[in-house]
Design goal:
By secondary structure, this protein is mainly alpha-helical. The chain folds into 2 domains: 5-71, Multidrug-efflux Transporter Regulator, Chain: A, Domain 2 (Orthogonal Bundle), CATH 1.10.1660; 92-137. It has helices spanning 8-15, 19-28, 45-59, 64-71, 106-109, 113-137; strands at residues 5-6, 43-44, 92-97, 100-104. It is rod-shaped. The protein starts with a strand and ends with a helix.
Length: 138
């Protein structure tokens, strides 16, 4: 079975990336040259995967220099996007006690719903223990 190959037009259609950009990435060394020359040149699934990864990183605001580092094997540290006017942040507000509220942004904290519930229980238990300890001292 032969591996799937793509023309430049097909590669650009699959990635929504202009030909000029693909050629620029090749020139910069971010993307491997196509297999073959002139009209016989074609791209493989490896080219497609690399181009999609480059596009994902650049759309997240990563510089092309940093993209090169990530493609070379460095960890993909993607900086958070700067907040724009009108940006929406979803946060959970967990009521602990009168006047005490825990605010959690689960996605930013990379917390699962189970972890958020466990955190809330631990904070509530800690607050009750603090109240108990301070009332025992009085």
């Amino acid at each position: 079975m032969t591996a799937k190959t793509f023309s430049l037009d097909e590669l650009c259609t699959l990635t929504s990336c202009p030909k000029r950009t693909v050629r620029y990435y090749i020139q910069m060394g971010l993307l491997q040259r196509p297999v073959g020359e002139t009209r016989g040149a074609h791209y493989t699934s490896s080219h497609l995967d690399s181009l999609l990864r480059i596009k994902q990183l650049t759309e997240a605001g990563v510089s092309l220099e940093r993209v090169r580092d990530v493609l070379a094997g460095e960890p993909p540290v993607v900086p958070p996007r700067p907040r724009q006017p009108g940006a929406v942040d979803v946060r959970s507000h967990i009521w602990v006690a009168p006047g005490i509220e825990l605010q959690v942004a689960p996605e930013q904290g990379q917390a699962s719903p189970e972890q958020v519930r466990a955190l809330a229980k631990a904070v509530i238990a800690a607050w009750h223990q603090i109240k108990k300890d301070t009332s025992d001292e009085a």
